[in-house]
Design a protein that fits this description.
By secondary structure, this protein is mostly helical. The protein has one domain. Helices cover 71% and strands 0% of the residues. It is built from five helices and no strands. It has helices at 2-12, 19-32, 40-51, 59-79, 86-97. The protein is elongated, with a radius of gyration of 20 Å.
Length: 98
């Protein structure tokens, strides 16, 4: 499993040596390994559940978990519809052009 390999690699890094870069590369590898059609938010939640216990003693794993949380937030924010003003905004836009 790709997640196990990523976590193993991140745990073997020395304390702070390139922790952010290694975590970002690990996150991108994990993201690219997801099957097509897989929800990134749900997969990130499951991966974070598995990686969180290891995050306390290892800065690289903690940063990897931070990237997973950001992926969950981005997936959640993209799912919510955004109000764009509706007919009132369209009327105001037309008035501004004339």
């Amino acid at each position: 499993m790709i997640l196990a390999g990523i976590l193993r690699t991140l745990r073997t890094l020395p304390e702070d040596q390139c922790a952010e870069t290694a975590a970002r590369i690990g996150f991108l590898n994990w993201l690219m390994s997801l099957p097509a059609g897989c929800g990134a938010g749900a997969a990130a939640r499951a991966a974070e559940r598995r990686a969180a216990p290891m995050a306390r003693g290892c800065p690289a794993v903690a940063r990897f978990c931070a990237h997973l949380r950001a992926a969950r937030r981005a997936d959640r924010d993209a799912a919510w519809p955004k109000r764009r003003g509706g007919s009132r905004a369209r009327r105001a836009e037309r008035r501004g052009r004339v």
